[in-house]
Write a structure and sequence with these properties.
Layout: H1 13-29, H2 32-39, H3 55-63, H4 82-94, H5 101-114, H6 117-127, E1 132-135, E2 151-152, E3 158-166, E4 173-180, E5 183-190, E6 196-200, E7 210-218, E8 221-224, H7 229-265, E9 267-268, E10 271-272, H8 277-306, H9 311-336, H10 348-360, H11 365-380
Parallel strand pairs: 1-4
Antiparallel strand pairs: 2-3, 3-7, 4-5, 5-8, 6-7, 9-10
Helix pairs in contact: 1-4, 4-7, 5-6, 5-7, 7-8, 7-9, 7-10, 8-9, 9-10, 9-11
Length: about 375
C-alpha cells in the first residue's frame, strides 16, 4: 500500500455527501434550543449526575449508516476512510451532539487494529448500532507501555477498576485493557454483566457522561492477546486523537459563528460591537486557529488512512492545536457575549463546557507537545 497522501486529504465525493447529509440531519434535528432543553433542564450545581440524550436520534444515526461508515468490509461495514469519521465528528461537535458516537468510533478503531475474530464480531455489532466505549485510562500517555489496574484471573474474568470512561451510561459494552503475567491484553465486557459496576463522575460537560468502572469477577472476551495492547493502541491512537480533535473543531466553529452573529447585532456606543478592533481582531484569530486545527486534523487522519509512519506524530500535533483552540474559542465567545455570556440561559455555556472537557481528554496541548518534543529530540540524538 502506498503511503503517499492523496490530494484533498482523500476527501472525495462519498465523504462530501456523508458530511453534507450529517450537517442537514443535525440542522433539522439538533438545534441549540433543543440541545439546551435536553441537557440543561436543571441548573442546580448540586444536582445528581445525569445522562441526558435522545435515543431516537441515535437510532436514526444508526439507520443512516454512520456507525458502519468506517468499519472495514471484512466486518460487514462500508469501509470508508478515517477522514469520513473525522467529518462526522466535526459535524457532531458543531451541535455538541449528546451520543455515544465518538466513543464508538474510538472503540471501533481499537477493535479494527486487533485483527482477531472476536474483535471483528464486535465490529459487526457496532456496524448494526451497538454502542461501545473504551476503558483504557492512559491511552494517550507514554508510548512505552499501556498500564492498567485491571487484572485477568485464571478463569478469564476481570477484577479491578478503570477511570475516565467516556459515555459509559450510553454504551452497551466496553473494550478494557487488563494485565496478566504474560502482559497486557484487550478484553470485551458487557456493561450489563454481573460483576460490573458503573460509578458516574460529576463533570461539567452536560453533553457527555463519564464514569469509573469497577470489575469484580466480570466475564470477558479476549479480543487482543496478552502483550498486544501496546501495539494495538499505538495503531489506533492517531484516528482516536483525530476524531476528538475534529469534535473540538466543530464546536469551535459553532462558537465562532454564534459570536460573530452576536457581534453584528449587539449595539454599543451606537455601533455593532463587531465594529471595534478589540472584538473583530480576536474573532479573526479564532477563525485562524480553527482553520489550523482543521487542516492538521484532516492531514493526520489522511496519514492514518494511508498507513504513514508519522501518523501518530501528526495526530499529536492536531490534538495539541485543537486543544489550545478549544480554550481560546470558548473564552472569546463568553467574553464577547458580555454579561449574558455567563448565564445559564445563554447556549454558549454548553459548548464552552464541551470544549473544556475535550481539551483535557486524552491529553491537553502541553501534554502532546511534550511527547512530540521527546520524539524529535530522541530522533535527532
Amino acid at each position: 500500500m502506498s503511503t503517499k497522501q492523496p490530494d484533498n486529504f482523500g476527501f472525495g465525493e462519498d465523504e462530501t455527501m456523508l458530511r453534507d447529509s450529517a450537517r442537514k440531519f443535525f440542522t433539522d434535528n439538533c438545534g441549540a434550543d433543543k440541545l439546551h432543553a435536553l441537557v440543561a433542564g436543571d441548573f442546580n450545581p448540586h444536582r445528581e449526575s445525569e445522562c441526558n440524550w435522545d435515543r431516537d436520534l441515535w437510532r436514526q444515526v444508526v439507520e443512516l449508516g454512520w456507525t458502519a461508515a468506517c468499519i472495514p468490509e471484512r466486518a460487514a461495514g462500508i469501509g470508508m476512510p478515517r477522514v469520513a469519521a473525522v467529518a462526522l465528528a466535526e459535524e457532531a461537535g458543531r451541535v455538541a451532539f449528546p451520543s455515544p458516537l465518538l466513543a464508538t468510533f474510538m472503540a471501533s478503531f481499537v477493535l479494527e487494529a486487533c485483527h482477531t475474530a472476536a474483535a471483528d464480531q464486535m465490529l459487526e455489532a457496532i456496524a448494526m448500532g451497538k454502542p461501545v466505549t473504551l476503558a483504557i485510562a492512559d491511552i494517550a500517555g507514554s508510548p512505552e507501555e499501556v498500564e492498567t489496574d485491571v487484572r485477568v484471573g485464571a478463569d478469564g474474568c476481570l477484577s479491578g477498576s478503570v477511570c475516565l470512561v467516556q459515555d459509559a451510561r450510553k454504551c452497551d459494552a466496553l473494550v478494557v485493557s487488563a494485565g496478566s503475567e504474560t502482559g497486557t491484553g484487550l478484553y470485551l465486557v458487557d456493561l450489563g454483566a454481573e460483576g460490573v459496576e458503573i460509578v458516574p463522575d460529576h463533570i461539567i460537560d452536560l453533553t457527555r457522561d463519564q464514569a469509573s468502572i469497577r470489575f469484580d469477577g466480570a466475564a470477558a472476551i479476549e479480543v487482543g492477546a496478552p502483550g498486544s495492547a501496546k501495539a494495538v493502541v499505538e495503531a489506533a491512537l492517531p484516528a482516536i486523537l483525530c476524531v476528538l480533535s475534529a469534535d473540538m473543531v466543530g464546536a469551535g466553529e459553532w462558537l465562532l459563528q454564534t459570536t460573530v452573529e452576536y457581534a453584528r447585532t449587539r449595539i454599543q456606543f451606537d455601533r455593532p460591537i463587531g465594529f471595534f478592533q478589540a472584538v473583530k481582531h480576536p474573532l479573526v484569530n479564532v477563525m485562524i486557529e480553527i482553520d489550523d486545527a482543521r487542516s492538521l486534523t484532516y492531514n493526520a487522519a489522511c496519514a492514518a488512512d494511508v498507513g504513514a509512519d508519522h501518523a501518530l506524530r501528526l495526530a499529536r500535533m492536531a490534538k495539541s492545536r485543537a486543544s489550545d483552540m478549544a480554550v481560546f474559542s470558548a473564552s472569546r465567545a463568553v467574553q464577547f457575549h458580555g454579561g449574558i455570556g455567563f448565564t445559564w440561559e445563554c447556549y454558549v455555556h454548553l459548548f464552552f463546557k464541551r470544549q473544556m472537557h475535550s481539551q483535557t481528554l486524552l491529553g491537553d496541548g502541553r501534554h502532546h507537545r511534550h511527547l512530540l518534543a521527546e520524539e524529535l529530540i530522541s530522533s535527532a540524538a
